Amino acid sequence: MRISELVERTGVPLATVKFYLRQGMLPPGEAVSATRAEYGEAHVRRIGLIRALSDVAGLPLGRVKDVLDLIDEPGGEAADQGQDGGGGLPDTGLPDTGLFDALGQAVAALPPYLEDAQPPFPRAEAAIAAIGQVYDERYAAVAQLERALEAVEAGGIPMTEERLHVYAAHLRAMAEYDLSRMPEDGGREAQLGYAVLGTALYDPVVAALRRLAHQDVAARRLGAPPPPAGAETPKGT
Amino acid sequence: MRISELVERTGVPLATVKFYLRQGMLPPGEAVSATRAEYGEAHVRRIGLIRALSDVAGLPLGRVKDVLDLIDEPGGEAADQGQDGGGGLPDTGLPDTGLFDALGQAVAALPPYLEDAQPPFPRAEAAIAAIGQVYDERYAAVAQLERALEAVEAGGIPMTEERLHVYAAHLRAMAEYDLSRMPEDGGREAQLGYAVLGTALYDPVVAALRRLAHQDVAARRLGAPPPPAGAETPKGT
Question: Does the pLDDT of residue A128 top 50, yes or no?
Fold first, then answer.
């Protein structure tokens, strides 16, 4: 398809599509003449992915590019930058398992961005030790957890040992499920895409489902009646 | 304490403290002379809460005020505005249970803000029906779920029936736990604070714990060895 059709199919303005091309976020079309390039379904899907990462997962475009680079060039320049720079998973001395490093770098590409946060992270380290997980204090998510635990303390609902264990057990079971469904076909690239995008894109799904679960439990506990038969709203069972 | 000590204790600039006072987000101090007011620990805590909601939960200050109004004046002006305006839980015909409405309004005060989204929300409605929850299509979280499900589709990892049931079961169990720990003392205000702030402030905790769980499961599955004895990093068991 021509670039004009790509614009129409995706609803993304021409100037934006050209920007994605210049930034290398969208691969060039196939040149069919000196003035025309041909685009395909892969371009439509890639634009959808860029919008999902930026508009829903909330990544700035520079971070979207980091994530795309992780998928496009596993172990390549982006991965190296991640290891040397501040944004990615640092060199932990663990074997370079590729997938594991990419996951760490994907997490570092997700908000909130706390590059200035320096260890120690006493609340987060105590919490992770209590639930017996493997971690490295240089993981971006450790700083993220520290800040989140500070915030619940400031809000007057500090994390308790009991709540930590309840939450961690359920979230770990969800993570086990996620890893168990990692695609076996498609090779390393498909696995990387699954791990990286699954972490980035499912955060908002989890947040929305959690809010709906709170409302559902509250409705049932606090006396909201089941909807009358045939009612349009509220819906449910 | 004087306002200068409040500034020192909280690390929030004087101009910002004065802004919070003007906006009614921080109650006035007790006037002890024509030119001096006295502030207390409640003011320190309230400033900590404002920072937690804005800096960590990511609420714009106008939304922080909405949440504070919910806690300060349950059933008051804020609740009415929420019902009449676009931001809160709409009138569902359910009994006004207070807590339930406040929870809905708190969710509407959390990002992402999708006021322009209009039903139908086909993906979200099908998903919520599949897991058998009570809902109303006008809940803010329904629009949030629709958008999040669109994004995972665009990213090439669409929600499956199986994943939906796994996620929903664990998140519902976490919600049941949360409601079971609602404070019994302190009356309606304490309960409202717990429900509203628990929803708003624990989202980032859940996101960070989920990312750490992914990294832990990946490390164990993908061959990252347990840390050598006595090693400083990586840590864990």
Answer: yes
